[in-house]
Automatic annotation (TrEMBL):
<dbReference type="GO" id="GO:0016477">
    <property type="term" value="P:cell migration"/>
</dbReference>
<dbReference type="GO" id="GO:0001708">
    <property type="term" value="P:cell fate specification"/>
</dbReference>
<dbReference type="GO" id="GO:0005881">
    <property type="term" value="C:cytoplasmic microtubule"/>
</dbReference>
<feature type="domain" description="Adenomatous polyposis coli N-terminal dimerisation">
    <location>
        <begin position="6"/>
        <end position="57"/>
    </location>
</feature>
<dbReference type="InterPro" id="IPR036149">
    <property type="entry name" value="APC_N_sf"/>
</dbReference>
<feature type="region of interest" description="Disordered">
    <location>
        <begin position="22"/>
        <end position="43"/>
    </location>
</feature>
<feature type="region of interest" description="Disordered">
    <location>
        <begin position="97"/>
        <end position="120"/>
    </location>
</feature>
<dbReference type="GO" id="GO:0008017">
    <property type="term" value="F:microtubule binding"/>
</dbReference>
<dbReference type="GO" id="GO:0007026">
    <property type="term" value="P:negative regulation of microtubule depolymerization"/>
</dbReference>
<dbReference type="GO" id="GO:0008013">
    <property type="term" value="F:beta-catenin binding"/>
</dbReference>
<dbReference type="InterPro" id="IPR032038">
    <property type="entry name" value="APC_N"/>
</dbReference>
<protein>
    <submittedName>
        <fullName>APCL protein</fullName>
    </submittedName>
</protein>
<dbReference type="Pfam" id="PF16689">
    <property type="entry name" value="APC_N_CC"/>
</dbReference>
<dbReference type="GO" id="GO:0045295">
    <property type="term" value="F:gamma-catenin binding"/>
</dbReference>
<dbReference type="GO" id="GO:0007399">
    <property type="term" value="P:nervous system development"/>
</dbReference>
<dbReference type="InterPro" id="IPR026818">
    <property type="entry name" value="Apc_fam"/>
</dbReference>
<dbReference type="GO" id="GO:0007389">
    <property type="term" value="P:pattern specification process"/>
</dbReference>
Amino acid sequence: MSGSIASYDQLVRQGEALKKENSHLRRELEDNSNHLSKLENETSDMKEVLKHLQGKLEQEARVMVSSGQTEVLDQLKALQMDITSLYNLKFAPEVMSTGRGAEESPPAPAPHRDGPGELGRATFRMLEELDRER
């Protein structure tokens, strides 16, 4: 009979340990969820700022093209490539480390979609043409 009491006490201790571990895991999951939400909000804010900046740059590029200031456009082209490279270096490893593979990544924008992305590609093509003409 003392063996069954010992087994019961052992099961109670294991149950309490499991409850503690469960509570700990719930807290950790909640913390991770809060952190992910914060990162998503920051990413969304950064995307809005980048869209705004891209719009300003594209507008400035159109003014420069119409006034013939191609040397500054070359600098902007290089800056755009640097920013893209920096973004890919900074954020691609983070996306992979969060367990989000390519299948979970947002889809690439449609090639003929009207919007800031299309203007950016058009500006980039225009800059390349100007560079070739030189």
